[in-house]
Every structure is written in C-alpha cells, then in structure tokens.
Specification:
With 438 residues, this protein is an alpha+beta fold. It is 42% helix and 14% strand. Strand 4 and strand 5 form a beta hairpin. The two termini are 40 Å apart.
Length: 438
C-alpha cells in the first residue's frame, strides 16, 4: 500500500495510528491510488471533495492532467467550482456508461423494452457484484457442518433427504425426479462436474428458503426470470459450498491465485475455480478484484463479471486483440497477456481453452475459453504476471470494449467506426479501414 500511495511504510503506519494528520496531499494520493475504494470518505465534506476532485483530475480518458498542487489549491480557494467540475466529470462517466449500454442494445438487437430473462438475470448478478452474502454464508456454514464438501459427504447428506444418486447416459447433465427421489447425473462428465451437479441439488434442498427469498426480492420482470435466477443462485451456492469463502480466499492468496493448484486443493474444475475467484467480494474480507468471462467459438460472451474498471462487451463483439479469442482455438493451454484499455489502465489477463466432452460421437463437444484478469497493480499476487514485462511502455496490447465505442484511431483490427464520431473519407488514400475519424 505504501508503494502504491507513494509514502514510506513508517509514514503510513503513523497515519494508521493517528500520529500524523491526513493532509489534503496525502488524501489526494490515496484517492488516486484507490479510486473505487476511496469513493466514500466519511462525514468530512472537504475530504470527500478532495478525493472526488483528485479522481476527476487524474482520469486518463480526459486530456490535460491537472497538477496535484494546482488541484489542492483550487479545491481550497474555489470549492464551489471544484464541486461543479466533479459534477461534470460524473456526468461524463454516466454518458460513457450509457454509450456502453447502447452498444450492448445494438449488438443484441434490443428495442429498449423489457429485457429477455437470460439477459435480466445476468444483469442482476452483475449489479449484485457477483456476490450474494446470505447464500454465500449459508453455504459456507453447511460445508463446515458436514466436515468438508467431498463426494462422500455430499452423497450422505443427500441420502438424509432420501435422495439417491445414479449414473445415467443421455443429453441431460442432471435430472432429478421428485417422486422417486432419484438424482441422475451424466456419467460422461468429469468427476468434479458430477460433484458440482450433486452439490447443486443439495443446495436446492438445504437452502431452498434462502434462495427463494433472494429470487423473489430481486424485482425481476417475469416468472421465467425468477426461475432462471433461482437456478443461478443454486449454482452460486454450490460453488460457495465446494469452495468455502474463508478457506478458498486464504488458499488463493497463499498460491498467488494459481488456478490449477487451487482446483486440486478443492477438487473442482478450472472454470469453477476461476468463477469462484470473481465472487470474492465479501465486505471486510474482499479478495483481489477480478474480471471473469467465458467466450464460445463464435465470440459470444456466455458468462461475464467484472469487479474491476474493465466493462467488456456484454453480448458479443468484444475486441479481437483480446487473447481470449485465440485461447478458444487452443484447448488446454494457458495464454497470458498484458493489455491496456483506452483509459490507460493495464490488466494482467489469463485465458485457457476448454473442451467439455459430450460422451457420444453423435454430439459435438462443447468448446470455449475462460478468462480471468486483474489490474496490473495486483500483479505481485497473480502468478500469471510473472513472465510479463509490466514496466515497458510498449509491452501492453491496446484493447477496447468494442469497436463501436473504442476511440483508438490507429487500430489495425477495427471492424466498425466508433459511434458519434464524424468520419473523413479520402478517395486518394487507403489505410487498413477506408475512413478516418475526428
């Protein structure tokens, strides 16, 4: 923390012990280093204004950075003007969010009406920060109660509900018959996937009331959305049960978020471990802010969540320079990338192509890639950053959210012109794309 803020460790310790005052310059340094965590300062209006003004002044998407000394002097002498500038910056950020939403709507052909159930449920998880406290804690307590979520413990607990697990062959991964209390699980899927399906059924029985309460309180538009959310919450609970929060977070930190090492400790799949890392946002015990997504062969993003500032395309059309697209075609190989978004933030990304066997020659296997990444400031705790040149100015791949909202004028992979920009066409000149823009 001292290194990120630009202070000595002893100075930081004195601040923590209230032996030194929090000056405006130090406050601005904290706001610059931790823009999201520093959003709520407290009852001190002046401190809050300094923090928000510092975040606005150092936004790399706005040309012409303001010197810190000038910023602090301006806040002190003209607080009303500083408040107005902060409000303008907030409006600018909201407009960028609206532009991303319009890009999403254009990509999926939405008419702006009631969202489809699948999209609505994905948005609910995104707005919830991909963390559901009541379910997460209940699943963790159950894992502690049964002495570890292994296969024998899950089968014994299901037997207590009168449920027997049987192996099956067919097109369904899991099928439960309430009348016979038989849970059929596809024998062709890997052992960790069979355990997850059994854990899902156990969560539906053990946490039925909690799941129903959360789903009904979500305020979704249709019954189909509520039903889909209930399934998603049971899956979430299964992940929290198999990878209990405190134990998983501690092991993730110890192993520097090595996915293969983590999955062996907890007996889960590569994708399950990645997904669980993206949910570690418990207040007071949060893990590293990660983004996580799953991309299929056609480039569709079928799972996505970001606890970082990166908000990638939600319905397809993601940046072709992002290495997750390459990973889809190269199964069982981990690719790493240092990427930089137009706002100047750098991300360390890991992607791996996966193949889910179908169990039959008559049905094609499912092929996709999962990606996990964090801001480069967390690189020391992310093992996949070890071989990357983090300090070199030209080492990062310049990526964007999608072509329609990416401002980069020199991208050789551009597929569409950016929305809202005036195009210039010169018949006598031709670059990679047949237009330029202002």
């Amino acid at each position: 923390m001292a290194a990120r803020v630009g202070l000595s460790v002893s100075y930081l310790s004195q601040l923590e012990s209230d032996d030194r005052p929090m000056t405006d310059a130090v406050l601005a340094a904290f706001a610059r280093a931790f823009p999201d965590d520093w959003a709520e300062i407290g009852p001190d209006d002046h401190a809050a204004l300094v923090a928000r003004a510092a975040a606005a002044a150092h936004d790399p998407t706005v040309p012409g950075a303001l010197a810190e000394e000038a910023l602090l002097r301006g806040v002190a002498r003209q607080p009303l003007l500083a408040e107005r500038l902060v409000a303008v910056h907030d409006a600018y950020r909201r407009s960028q969010d609206q532009l991303r939403s319009l890009d999403d709507a254009l990509e999926r052909g939405s008419d702006g009406g009631v969202p489809l159930p699948w999209d609505e449920v994905r948005e609910w998880f995104h707005d919830a920060g991909n963390y559901v406290d009541a379910i997460d804690r209940a699943a963790e307590r159950l894992a502690e109660e049964i002495g570890g979520p292994d296969v024998g413990a899950v089968e014994a607990r299901l037997a207590g509900h009168g449920v027997a697990i049987v192996a099956a062959t067919g097109t369904e991964l899991r099928s439960f018959d309430p009348a016979t209390r038989r849970l059929a699980v596809d024998r062709s899927i890997p052992p960790e996937s069979r355990l997850f399906q059994a854990a899902h059924q156990l969560m539906r029985l053990e946490l039925a009331g909690t799941i129903a309460k959360v789903a009904e309180a979500a305020g979704l538009h249709s019954r189909e959305s509520v039903q889909l959310l209930s399934v998603g919450l049971a899956n979430y609970a299964a992940g929290a049960f198999l990878m209990p929060y405190a134990a998983f977070r501690a092991e993730a930190r110890r192993l520097r978020h090595d996915i293969d090492a983590l999955r062996q400790v907890f007996g889960v799949s590569f994708e399950q471990a990645c997904h669980r890392l993206s949910t570690l946002q418990r207040p007071g015990a949060a893990g590293i802010p990660f983004y996580f997504c799953r991309v299929d062969m056609a480039g569709n993003i079928t799972k996505r969540h970001s606890a970082t500032r990166l908000q990638f395309a939600r319905f397809g059309g993601a940046c072709p320079l992002w290495m997750v697209h390459e990973a889809v075609a190269i199964p069982d190989r981990i690719l790493v990338q240092l990427a930089e978004t137009p706002d100047g933030v750098r991300y360390v990304s890991m992607a791996k192509g996966l193949v889910k066997p179908s169990g039959s020659y008559a049905r094609p296997s499912r092929r996709y890639a999962v990606a996990l990444g964090c801001e480069a400031t967390h690189a020391a705790d992310f093992i996949y950053a070890d071989q990357l040149d983090l300090g070199s100015p030209g080492a990062a791949t310049p990526i964007g959210v999608s072509c329609r909202i990416c401002p980069r004028a020199d991208c050789e992979q551009r597929a569409f012109p950016p929305a809202g920009r005036a195009l210039s066409v010169d018949p006598d000149r031709r670059a990679v794309v047949p237009y330029g823009f202002a």
